[in-house]
Amino acid sequence: FPTRRSSDLLSTARNLAQLIAHFDDREAAEWSAFLSGFNFYTKLHDSPKQRFETLAANWRSETRYLSDTNEICSHPAYQEIIGMGILALPFIFAELENQPDQWYWALKAITGADPVPEEHRGNLELMRAAWLNWASSCKERLGAEWRRVFIAVSA
Question: What are phi and psi of 74, to 5 degrees?
């Protein structure tokens, strides 16, 4: 986070410490696993945001003339985005805010959720709405934790 001011980093550290202080053993283990994965990921790549943007641009460029969802979603760049795990979520949701796209396979793989009703499958706009509603519900339910993780990843 070299571009952020020291006071911002200190504030973020305090917020994280307050959050972690309320964790039970299971939550602490999950947070520890997330941080280990995040640290490992950032050692491999410049930043999750840059990595996502590079992969998404490559994926779009190489699949723009494809119509088969299986081909589109099995593209290596798309699979790498799935491999980013929860680090990719803020960027995928930002993409969906702007327009529907084939992010639903990745979202289901990363989150384990599937908020799209059977009757909406195949309709990108309705699928988009279902996933954005799911994300909004998570933001409300998880509140500050959701924001802190997304801010940490997006920096």
Answer: -100, 5
Q: Tokens in use for 134?
A: 């799911």
pLDDT, tens digit (0-9, with 9 covering 90-100), for 77-121: 999 999 988 889 889 999 999 988 899 999 999 988 999 999 999
Q: Which two tokens stand for residue 109?
A: 């793989």
d(CA 71, CA 128): 20
Q: For the chain, what is the mean pLDDT?
A: 81
- Measured CA to CA in angstroms, residue 119 lies from 70, 111, 126, 152 at distances of 20, 21, 9, 36
**112-107-93 Cα angle (round to 5):** 135
More confident residue, 4 or 61: 61
Write the CA distances from 31 to 25, 34, 44, 105, integer angstroms: 10, 5, 20, 25
Average pLDDT over residues 24-29: 75
